[in-house]
Amino acid sequence: MSKSSNSLFQSIRRFTGVLGDLLSEAHAPCPLCQMSARRSDPDPFLRTSLPRDAILLQICRRCSAAVPWITHVACAVCGRPDPCPDCRRRENAHFMLSRSAVRYDDSVREWLALFKYRGDERLVHPLADMLDIAYTRLNRELLSRGPDFCWDAVIPVPVSPDRLMERGFNQAERLASLLCARRGIPMAELLVRTRHSEKKSLQSRLARLQSVDGLFTADPDAVALLISNWLRRERASSSAQPSFLQRPLRLLIVDDIYTTGSTIDACAAALHQAFGSQDLRLRPDIYAITVARS
Amino acid sequence: MGERKDIVLHVWRTLLPLGIAEEAAARWTAENAGRIVEEIAAVRTFRKIVQAAVGFEIKGKGEENWTERVVVGELRREEEQGQRQRQERGERAGYGQGHKGVQVQGERQGQGQMQGQGQMQGQGHGERQVQVQERGERHGQMQGQMQRQERGEGQVIGQGQVHGQIHGQGQVQGQVQGQGQRQGIEQSGSRYVEGDNDRMLGLIDDELVQAIADRLHGRAALLSEAQELLAAGPPACRAVAAGGWSALAPALQWAALRGLVRLRCAVAPQQPAASPLRRLLLPAPMRRGRWLRRCMRCGSGEARMNRTACAACGSSACAYCEACLTMGRSRECGLLILGGGMAGLADAQGAAVPGAAPAVAAARAHSVHAPAAIAARWGLSPAQQAAAEAALRYARPGLAPAFKLSPASDESPFLIWAVTGAGKTEMVFPLIEAALAAGGRALIATPRRDVVLELDPRIRRAFPAANVVTLYGGSEQRWEDGDITIATTHQLFRFQERFDLVIVDELDAFPYHGDERLHYAAAKVGVPGGAVILLSATPPRAMQRDVRRGKIGCARVPVRYHRHPLPVPVQTRIPRVSELLAKHKLPRPLLSRLAVSLARGAQCFIFVQQIRHAEPLAQLLRAAFPNTSIGATSSKDAERAQRVQAFRNRELRILVTTTILERGVTVPFSDVYILDADGKLFDESSLVQMAGRAGRSADDPNGRVYFFASASSQSQRQATAQIRSMNREAKRNGYLLQSKPNTHRQER
User: Fold this and answer.
1) What is the mean pLDDT of chain B?
2) Of A3, A11, A121, the CB nearest to B308
3) Quick one: B615 exposed, middle or buried, by C-beta within 10 A (0-12, 13-18, 19+)?
């Protein structure tokens, strides 16, 4: 009988342990560094920009100090904290401007690597919160220029089918979906990667600029579907000509890192081409946000 | 004569999808069963069926160029005696392109001999499809002599002999060894035809499959790991790895059909066994619990799973294991390849059949010597020798199955409870030697990477003839095979049923102490019926209970190798370290004892609970002892290794540290001061281990150990009691060198 009482005892212990874990939020580990410390009082800057349940408010003190926020923007186009040779070089960009939340230093590199390559999907929450900060900044900036600003769609940068099968998820799409869920913007996965390019992280800058040639296309059916959805929604509200033909479309591209901007540029070009081929009156204004800016 | 049975063999080996192959074979059987067919006709009809199924024309016109005069022999079956003979005679000469497929399906029972002699000469292209599916038992010998000369593109020129044995039970498994020479332009990799996925038609070399299975043998690998493993192997395997999934999949499938590897989901549902309470209360169908996900690689349960929307399998809640994420994603839709066990046999559920094939066991049996002789050779002290002999007696049945008296193997491990500094590594050498002599593989698992690196040269010195492989995160020997493997915990997850001897060192220091993963790993990494030895100075309480109840065998070594007793700790009351740091004052008892230690020339370990106390305390000490070099280190210290080395070289006389140095460090002539000994972080085993840093060398066996605390605590009392009881036992058994009174004890 001792055996059964022993196992009963053990199951009681296990039950209370699980219950205890559920009840003690305070002992959950910091998502970024997996240490068991939790932060006591979040930064006021974070508190104002993020909703109360954001995970970023609950990282440990050490990680919170280590996040390299971009505090001021030197290049108006790509949101870089230093003066920008890339944007000066690019003659006609297909996107309007891009903003990023953090600089791409070693800690961010590690977090993104853990998320993308190792596949630790718990990190999506703090990273999505960082993306949210970038979004908030961009939103404020654009609202200050024209108060009737609203977003039409969020488009994540795709990964090739091989990578998708290997990793099981598209990191940009995961980040974008959390953002869209929080901010109530529709997400449209319009872009597809036409060929499999070598891992960007292993390419030089020149190779990167060249490798995006014709890399992305927009799926015409998806674009048509999106437009018809908009039409249907507009028709429901008013009977005049659809508003999105009178004003430029506002699309937001989401990616994890902005290095040269060539990816975003190629995506934007593909989008322009796709929308243009559907209806010449459509003029998308394309913006971009990324988590990190290298 | 018995009645004649018409037998149709499916014999083909191809890169066609298995489903199509099976379908075609089934259809062929349906149409042609009951007839004796000539091989050519069989081939023709078979090819038509496959063509219809696959939808394109198989290359192979010009079979009329083959002048084959092969008579598929009659197969006779005798019910009573079960003898079968099959003779195949023929000459095959042909030019041009040809296609050959031979099919046989049916049941075969009995013994028989198959002899064949033939000559095959041909020129040109050829494609051959061969697959075997047989049900039934076959014992027999296959001997053949084959001379083959083929010339042409990518063909084999040469001759060879095939000689082999076939054993079967439920599935055909076989060992075919070939010896021969092959000259030619053929390279194994070049036989693959890579093309569109639905047009692949090529050859799978039997040898290649065997090579892949050998490489995967005894391991548990995810798909990406398997590819890396093959990429580090012989050239044939490298070609397969380079070909990606499309080249690897058929070879894996074929190997799995033959029972050489087992294919599993990396995260699979399992039903937990029924507890006695459930068995009592519930009716039979409801007794076993809910199906719960378990990571088959590391044994973690639902608690460590994360569910996510997975693009690879389309599920919106595909579970992956977070516990072993550092070694690759073990996910529900992921493949886990388990290399076959020792015998390469697998039953229907895929578990390896325990016990090796008779031939292997016989080879092992005669090479295990008597335990006493082995222990004497290694220069062990009497206590060590006794423990080693006991362990050998436990281990011998595991290492040499022929000695097993009972068919059921004893699954429990064996504990060697040896005090700190008893020379655990040396005690284990006889066991390793026995394992190697029996032709098996040994594993030493230890929690920390520096211990792995420290053990490596010692093992190499002790066993110069053996191939030693060290495995830790980032080790370059990751995919090598060795006779002796030294690995950290995580690396154990990559093995399955590979080691005949498993030695788990520092059992209680494993990360995630008490975690089910450790037990899972230790259980699955050894060959079923092999020997598992646990080494510890401070086994956990549950294990001590099991030892007392006789569930686990145990050998105690209560004395250090230099045969002096363990230093017994002295308890002293001082305020907490945080208070001392706040007041910037060190208490007199501490300072006076430190002065005594320094005066007698000893190095001083000072253990503190918190990392942030280390450096400030070191500062205070520097103020108190201005002429002594004092250092502080912790797990957050980047220069920890250098500081420890400086301490070893006596450049630093005092080192303030956290529990990071509680194990594995041997610094001669040292005293141990443990501050905040009543703190939560210092439990009984931790205190015993820290106390074990003192008095390890033969020149200074009487190092001092001090517990400084603000109050007494149970862990301090238990630690002191344990040390005292070990000393008593040593004295009782006569292991101590002399029984002079321990002056240290009277200091209290």
Assistant:
1) 70
2) A121
3) middle
Q: How many Cα atoms are found within 13 Å in the side-chain-facing hemisphere of B732?
A: 9
Task: Tell me how far apart the alpha carbons of residues B366 and B363 are, in angstroms, rounded to a whole number.
Answer: 6
% helix, strand, coil for chain B, step of 5 = 35, 25, 40
Of the candidates B378, B480, B469, the residue with the CA atom closest to the CA atom of residue B431 = B378
- The Cα of B373 is separated from the nearest Cα of chain A by a number of Å equal to 41
Q: Is the pTM of this model over 0.90?
A: no
Q: Would strands B83-95 and B66-71 be described as parallel, antiparallel, or unpaired? A: antiparallel
- Coil, helix or strand at residue B735: coil
CB B24 within 8 A of CB B50: yes
Q: What local confidence, expressed as pLDDT, does residue B89 receive?
A: 34
DSSP state letters, A197-261: PPPGGGS-HHHHHHHTTT-EEE-HHHHHHHHHHHHHHHHHH-SSS-HHHHS-EEEEEEEEEESSS
Inspect the interface and report whether the beta carbons of B309 and A169 lie closer than 8 Å.
yes
What's the DSSP call for residue B205?
-
The rounded distance, in Å, linking the Cα atoms of A51 and B18 is 54
Instruction: Please list every residue in chain A whose beta carbon sits closer than 8 Å to the beta carbon of residue B322.
Output: 120, 122
Contact yes or no for A122 and B322 at CB 8 A: yes
**Taking each helix axis from N to C terminus, what angle separates B714-732 and B684-691, rounded to the nearest 10 degrees?**
60
- Whether residue A4 and residue B275 make contact (CB cut-off 8 A), yes or no, is yes
SS3 content of chain A, % helix, strand, coil (to 5): 50, 15, 35
Instruction: State the amino acid at position B421 in one-letter form.
Output: G
Residues of A in contact with B277 (CB under 8 A): 4, 7-8
Question: Which parts of chain A register pLDDT below 50?
Answer: 1-2
The answer, yes or no, to whether ipTM is higher than 0.90 is no
Can you give the length of chain B in residues? 748
- Note the pLDDT of residue B204: 66
**CA–CA separation, B546 and B539 (whole Å):** 11
Amino acid A154: pLDDT: 95
pLDDT at res. B218: 86
Q: Which residue reads 């020479």 in tokens?
A: B181
Spatial separation of the C-alpha atoms in residues B207 and B209, rounded to whole Å: 5
How far apart (Å, rounded) are the C-alpha atoms in residues A253 and A288?
4
DSSP assignment of B628-652 equals S-EEE--TT-TTHHHHHHHHHTTS-
Indicate the average pLDDT of chain A.
80
Measured CA to CA, the distance from residue B700 to residue B266 in angstroms comes to 53
Looking at residue B18, its pLDDT comes to 55
Task: Point out the residue among A8, A122, A164 whose CB comes nearest to the CB of B311.
Answer: A164
Rounded distance, CA B702 to CA B743, Å? 9
Burial class (CB in 10 A: 0-12, 13-18, 19+), A246: exposed
**What's the token pair of residue B689?**
């281990």
Q: Tell me: the pLDDT tens digits for B24-64?
A: 667 776 776 656 556 556 666 766 776 666 554 444 332 32
Element (H, E) at B524: helix B516-524
Q: Could you give the angle at the alpha carbon of B333 between the alpha carbons of B328 and B339, nearest 5°?
A: 65
Residue B744 DSSP label: G
Residue A154, class by beta-carbon neighbours within 10 Å (0-12 exposed, 13-18 middle, 19+ buried)? Answer: buried
CA distance B290 to chain A (A): 15
Q: What is the pLDDT of residue B592?
A: 92
Determine whether the interchain pair B306/A121 forms a contact, defined as Cβ–Cβ distance below 8 Å: yes
Which among A8, A118, A168 is the nearest to B312, CB-wise?
A168
Euclidean distance between CA atoms A211 and A206, whole angstroms: 9
3-state secondary structure B82-138: CEEEEEEEEEEEEECCEEEEEEECCEECCEEEEEEEEEEEEECCEEEECCCCCEECC
E-state strands within B386-438: 414-418
